[in-house]
Amino acid sequence: MDLTEAIASVRDQLVEAATRAIGQPVVFEVGTIEMEFTLELRKETKAGGRVKAWVVDAGADAARATGRTHRVAFTLTPRDSRTHAPWLVGDDDPGSTAGFGQDTPGPRPAHPTR
Q1: How far lies 56's CA from each of 7, 35, 36, 44, 65, in Å?
Q2: Which residues, 6+ apart, have CB-to-CB distance to 22 below 8 Å?
Q3: What is the DSSP pairing of strand 28-29 with strand 88-89?
């Protein structure tokens, strides 16, 4: 699995949790998400030889991975794509998760333009 698929999987699971929690009496604000992966960088031989980051399986053969992997850690803060407010899981208002899933077009600015 490449890094973009791993991050998209976390995003999709947050959307699924929000969908399942509609109408529940307790809501959770999604705080920062700390992610850490062991990556293997591979250069593709086609399409201009770009480098792509692949998440290494926890059960990967250590001898195969030695010296070719990198640990990467970062923090993501989920925001509502419409309001840029902190995101809630379990809000009584079903609202819309459009723009939060994999079909989101392009990156969002760090600070919304006012």
Answers
A1: 14, 14, 11, 17, 8
A2: 90, 91, 92, 94
A3: antiparallel
> Would you say 18 and 90 are in contact if contact means Cβ atoms under 8 Å apart?
yes
Return d(Cα 83, Cα 61) in angstroms, integer.
45
Distance, in Å, from the CA atom of 70 to the CA atom of 37, rounded to the nearest integer, reads: 8
Rg (CA), the chain: 17
Is the model's pTM score more than 0.70? no
Residue 55 placed within a domain: yes
In a domain, 40, yes or no: yes
Residue 96 domain-assigned (yes or no): no
Domain tally for the chain?
Answer: 1
Tens digits of residue pLDDT in 49-105: 777 778 887 665 544 544 578 888 999 888 888 888 888 777 555 556 565 555 544
